[in-house]
């Protein structure tokens, strides 16, 4: 006898991927996450492909993972997927010491962050009528 499974936190037309302990500050990662928020996944992948930010490669991998989860685990159509949410959370912070002049020392903080990407299947509108 195992414990009962938790109910699914997302809706039926959503899938997500989480990347934890990413060695970049949350502020820098949020700049790249803001680049893809609300866009179709094909456009978001293209934007990340040509972004000059170092971290965009890891964000792209996470987005591809969310797309694969939507396709394989939840039977969603890849062509109708939109990046519904892309949010960044703080992770741990490594504290380091840097020796300075006159016997002083300064603290160097090396932050980590977490990235969560949620993709949602949105049905295409066939026409706009008035």
Automatic annotation (TrEMBL):
Entry keyword annotation includes Glycoprotein: no
Cellular-component GO terms for this entry: cytosolic large ribosomal subunit
Domain of life: Bacteria
Keywords noted in UniProt: Ribonucleoprotein, Ribosomal protein, RNA-binding, rRNA-binding
GO molecular function list: rRNA binding; structural constituent of ribosome
Signal peptide segment: none
Record-linked SUPFAM superfamilies: Ribosomal protein L22 (SSF54843)
Assembly information from the UniProt record: Part of the 50S ribosomal subunit.
PANTHER family xref list: CHLOROPLAST 50S RIBOSOMAL PROTEIN L22-RELATED (PTHR13501), LARGE RIBOSOMAL SUBUNIT PROTEIN UL22M (PTHR13501:SF8)
Role according to the record: The globular domain of the protein is located near the polypeptide exit tunnel on the outside of the subunit, while an extended beta-hairpin is found that lines the wall of the exit tunnel in the center of the 70S ribosome.
HAMAP family (UniProt xref): Ribosomal_uL22_B
Family: Belongs to the universal ribosomal protein uL22 family.
Name of the featured protein: Large ribosomal subunit protein uL22
Annotated organism of origin: Chelatococcus asaccharovorans
């Amino acid at each position: 006898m195992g414990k009962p499974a938790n109910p699914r936190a997302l809706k039926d037309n959503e899938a997500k991927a989480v990347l934890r302990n990413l060695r970049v500050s949350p502020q820098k990662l949020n700049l790249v996450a803001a680049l893809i928020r609300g866009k179709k996944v094909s456009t978001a992948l293209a934007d990340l492909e040509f972004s000059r930010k170092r971290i965009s490669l890891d964000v792209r991998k996470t987005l591809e993972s969310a797309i694969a989860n939507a396709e394989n685990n939840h039977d969603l159509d890849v062509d109708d997927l939109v990046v519904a949410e892309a949010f960044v959370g703080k992770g741990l912070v490594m504290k380091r010491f840097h020796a300075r002049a006159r016997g002083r020392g300064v603290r160097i903080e090396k932050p980590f962050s977490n990235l969560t990407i949620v993709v949602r299947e949105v049905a295409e509108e066939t026409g706009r009528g008035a």
